[in-house]
Amino acid sequence: MPAHLRVRAARRRGVATLELALAASFTIPLLLGVGAIGIRLGRTLQATQLTRDVAHMYALGADFSLAGTQAIATTLSRDFDLSSTGHAVLLFSRIAKVQQTDCTGAGLHTCPNLNLPVFTQRITMGNTALLTSQFGTPPAAYVGSGGNIASVNYCQQTLLIAAGFDSVLALAAGQTATMVEGYFAMPDINFLGFPNSGGGYYVRFLF
Length: 207
Fold this sequence. Notes:
Elements: H1 3-59, H2 67-76, E1 88-97, H3 100-105, E2 117-126, H4 151-154, E3 176-185, E4 200-206
Antiparallel strand pairs: 1-2, 1-3, 3-4
């Protein structure tokens, strides 16, 4: 083969290698990104299903302060760790609109929280450091056995008001609602090193 043909062939191979490198620098991150999105979508569906299932159970009267009921939630959680140091948390809240009979029954002469939505129960599962409810956090001093809050407290303590809940669900006086909020961190999806690509997922259900 003439020398000039060998030179041309070598140049073509060099150009092809450069084109392959440029294409790979674009397609490989793209494929990894598509994979991360797919994994995240699957995780969010699992998180939504878990939160909906436990919220339905909670609305029907399941007591998630009991170890046996919490074990059911742990089984349903699949890929999410609901331990105190895990990557997921569930907040169970019972909310009521205070009426005058509540305050009268609690022996109160004044009713500061009259006609306001208040927390009457709060139970937590998982790593509570991951999520602070946008509706408020009942101080531990008012949360008793089984997560229950006494009427003498929720009728008058302003720290027990579920701030902004009326904008989500407007209860009539005397009505109650149950709500489960979930937050699921996904640090293992952040394998590309992009900021917040692991992120987390917040979901809530009300009944």
